[in-house]
Write a structure and sequence with these properties.
MetI-like fold, mainly alpha, 2 strands, 76% helix, two-stranded antiparallel ribbon
Length: 288
């Protein structure tokens, strides 16, 4: 009786362990596999035709539009990542080492924007940067400008500012987690050896926090690289043409699903390569 109960419990535990794998296969592997297969199809007579062809990848490489759009998106994502890290690291350091009394409250204040809808945050920046928005009104009231500036909105930098605000919490959380896990004895030992605050930071805190920095940078880069709404709302004619908007246009407007799938497969490959690179850098840092 007891052995049968133990066996039944073991089967339940094994089934429970297999459920996440099954969900990953159904929700990730199968759609990606279908996307890969569809990238080798073609459109004939306005209909999808499952004929194997490499024309989509030849067009993707041979036309300057697609590499230029990918490079433009990557450059924008790099700007967002840099600004997000510049904001996230000092905030994470403050929360981990300085804010002892109200740490939870401050951490809550940092991540509370994640509770607000992404659409609301993107539209908020449209209101702030608009020609009759809050920023123009403030500059006019201070006498800095004499007429509203039209360059604040519908530009690449409007997209960078909005994405930096949206994705800074994603960069902060892994950095804060790593900083908080650093044993205080290491920093105290550095100070006992007459190292100042800057030397302690450069030789102890910063190297130990690099895994969190890499994770935060990866989050900010990948999420901003694939963002769709902020470029659509805040970018101009050039800024709106990021790779996610291009894929949406190929699927939803041009009805060229195979070419859109090919672009998506290339972006997935670049993302996996980036994850492999950051993982290799992190492992190399841990072995030193």
């Amino acid at each position: 009786m007891i052995s049968s109960q133990v066996a039944a419990r073991g089967r339940v535990l094994r089934l429970g362990a297999l459920l996440p794998l099954a969900w990953a296969v159904v929700l990730l592997f199968v759609p990606y596999a279908f996307l890969l297969v569809q990238s080798f199809w073609r459109v004939a007579g306005g209909a999808l035709t499952p004929d194997f062809t490499l024309d989509n990848y030849r067009r993707l490489i041979g036309t300057s539009l697609y590499p230029r759009t990918i490079l433009y998106s990557a450059e924008t994502a790099l700007w967002v990542t840099g600004f997000a890290l510049l904001l996230a690291y000092p905030l994470a350091y403050l929360l981990a080492f300085k804010a002892r009394r109200h740490r939870e409250l401050l951490y809550f204040a940092v991540i509370i924007p994640l509770w607000v809808s992404y659409v609301v945050r993107a539209y908020a920046w449209k209101i702030i940067l608009g020609q009759h928005g809050i920023l123009n009104g403030l500059l006019l009231s201070l006498g800095v400008i004499h007429e509203p500036l039209s360059v604040l909105l519908y530009s690449r930098w409007a997209v960078v500012v909005a994405l930096t605000h949206i994705y800074t919490p994603f960069a902060l959380m892994p950095i804060f987690a790593v900083l908080e896990s650093i044993p205080p004895s290491l920093r105290e030992a550095s100070q006992d050896l007459y190292a100042g605050r800057w030397r302690t930071f450069l030789h102890v805190t910063l190297p130990l926090s690099l895994p969190g920095v890499l994770a935060g940078a990866t989050f900010a880069f990948v999420l901003s690289m694939g963002d769709f709404l902020a470029p659509q709302l805040l970018g101009g004619n050039d800024s709106a043409l990021m790779v996610s908007n291009l894929v949406w246009s190929l699927f939803g407007v041009a009805y060229n699903w195979p070419l859109g799938a090919a672009v998506a497969v290339v972006m997935l490959g670049l993302t996996l390569a980036l994850l492999a690179l950051t993982g290799a850098i992190e492992r190399r840092g841990q072995t030193r």
